[in-house]
Structures are given as structure tokens and as C-alpha cells.
Specification:
InterPro entries: Signal_recog_particle_SRP14 (IPR003210). The chain is an alpha+beta fold. Helix content is 35%, strand content 23%. The N and C termini lie far apart (56 Å).
Length: 110
């Protein structure tokens, strides 16, 4: 997995969306990130670790290609605006809902 800066993550995510436009899928996950790189032990002494800054880990994968980035709380608004524009631009391949099911429900109630 490759940890990228925010801007380079968005450009790589754009490339992944373009690559999967005809077939395939991109999986995106979001997770709270506290800065730890080692797992927390289950038993024994438990340390109370409080991160100084709340962060978010975003991962995207397509097949064997995996990318990730860490967003700090200061950069959330800027990243969210760029991320939402990117999603709007590349979510045009979704299937539309059937309108037949809605028309059947309205006829049954009348």
C-alpha cells in the first residue's frame, strides 16, 4: 500500500476511476486514524494513548493497486471539497433505479 499526500492521492484516485470506467470497481474505505503503526495488545498493561490531532485514513483499491492518505483535522474541509467534486465527476456509470416498481405501488394504494 502506498501512502500519498492529499493532492497526489486525488490524482491517483482519478486515474483509478478512469481505468475502471468500462469494467471493474474501486473500493474506498474511511477510518479514524490515531497515528499508531503497531497493533494494541489485548491483555496486559493498557496505555491510554490520546492523539494530539484527530486524523482520518482513506484507502482506495482496485485489483492489486492500493493507495492511501492521512487527512488531518486542519485539512478536512479542503480535501472534502476536492473529494466530493471528484466523486461527482466519476459517478456517472451507476445504474438508474427502475421506475416500474414505483408506479405499481402507487396504483395499489389508489
Amino acid at each position: 500500500m502506498v501512502l500519498l499526500e492529499n493532492d497526489s492521492f486525488l490524482t491517483e484516485l482519478t486515474r483509478l476511476f478512469q481505468k475502471c470506467r468500462t469494467s471493474g470497481s474501486v473500493v474506498i474505505t474511511l477510518k479514524k486514524y490515531d497515528g499508531r503503526t503497531k497493533p494494541v495488545p489485548r491483555k496486559g498493561h493498557s496505555e491510554s494513548f490520546e492523539p494530539a490531532d484527530n486524523k482520518c485514513l482513506i484507502r482506495a483499491s482496485e485489483g492489486k493497486k492500493k493507495i492511501s492518505t492521512v487527512i488531518s483535522s486542519k485539512e478536512v474541509i479542503k480535501f472534502q471539497m476536492a473529494y466530493s467534486n471528484l466523486l461527482r465527476a466519476h459517478m456517472d456509470g451507476l445504474k438508474k433505479k427502475d421506475k416500474k416498481s414505483k408506479s405499481k405501488k402507487t396504483k395499489a394504494t389508489q
